[in-house]
Amino acid sequence: MQIRTDWDQVVVGLGASGQAAAAHLADAGHRVAVVDSRARPPRADDLQARHPDIAVITGGLDERVLAAAGEIVLSPGVDPRIPALQAAQRRGQPIIGEIELFARAVTAPVIAITGSNGKTTVTRMVAAMAEQAGVEVAAGGNLGPAALTLLERHPRAELFVLELSSFQLETTVSLRPAVAAVLNLSPDHLDRYDDMAAYAAAKARIFRHADQAVVNADDPRVRDMAVDAARVQRFGETAVPPAGWHIAGDPAERWLMAGTTPIMPRSALALPGHHNALNALAALAIGDAAGLDRDAMASALTAFRSLAHRTEPLGWHDGRLWVNDSKATNVASALAAIAGMDRPLVLIAGGDGKGQSFAALGPALTDRARAAVVYGRDAAGLAEALADHVPVHAVDDLDAAVGLARRVSRRGDAVLLSPACSSLDQFSDYRARGEHFRRRVEAIAHD
Questions:
Q1: Per-residue pLDDT tens for 357-373?
Q2: Catalytically annotated residue among 142, 276, 324, 330
Q3: Most buried among 190, 203, 317, 384, using CB within 10 Å?
Q4: Catalytic site residue 119?
């Protein structure tokens, strides 16, 4: 096969990020090739219909194609440790990501948010605050749409609010956020990182060129990350200096505080749960650093509702409250969802555990859960971790898990899908898993 050797850019991976990167580069006049290990990437036809000059090469990562690249644009879902990419690194070829392309093109201020848990909720909260304050804002990134897609769709945006993953930050060098935030760190993606230190280092890249930083004062891995930032705001439960953002007041009425200034009562938040109070506190700290009006921020939070797939109530069916928390792709996220339940629950968990320990889930379910139903690739590991704390039932897939959870739960219980795992053993992503769960619950409603 004749392989061209004059590519300006080769994009690796044709997901949402790769599609946006390829289209952006082609629109800018570059000679672009896309390579994908899948035989039929779902976005290939759409991309070639819009840009017939882009070469889409599927079925593997041909090293000859990569070797011809002036620059390689790596999609976040592609592991940079694969041999073809390691060979490119040895050749000294630049390997960047879609966020790096965005950073080179954007002219409006950017708020960048990362963390193991809560980053989608906080990103959406900050965007809602900006909109309430009268700012033309565009929000996306890791949560979607892709950053370059935002740039195309919102050319007059005055502010971009981006959720960024550690994978996206690994391949970004030029981003200069007006405000950058790390919300927390808990074990995640340890199938791709050697240890927590490597994972934390990837997250900390968000602060490299940030004008202002926002950090979680309660998280020892996070609180000292932003030592080089010009200005730092800290948020936390109570362990913050007087100028920090915290929660105070007597048990009857807790307040979200900026130093000694009360901003809003916790009871005014539309989202329930202590974890969402901390998410709101983080969003206030970020918005304040960006110069948003405090009254507008508080007003936005009183109206902010649950996101799809994040402790999303699906309604009462057959006497059970069904809750979709498919976005809980790690143990810490599942723990937050469990803690937020105010009734006996049956937990549905499972998928690909990404090398993390499930040990913390067992004690969290003691005295809270009636049972747990586990499924998927790491069902055995989940069952072992939970068996001493709660009755455990193992099944093959999510369909079977829903049916069994219905049988072992009782009227008045919550059935909580909070998988604590990636979805990729059985679904394309957490959204597909959550939508499948929604359809199964809707079927129960029509029984």
A1: 999 999 999 989 999 99
A2: 142
A3: 203
A4: yes
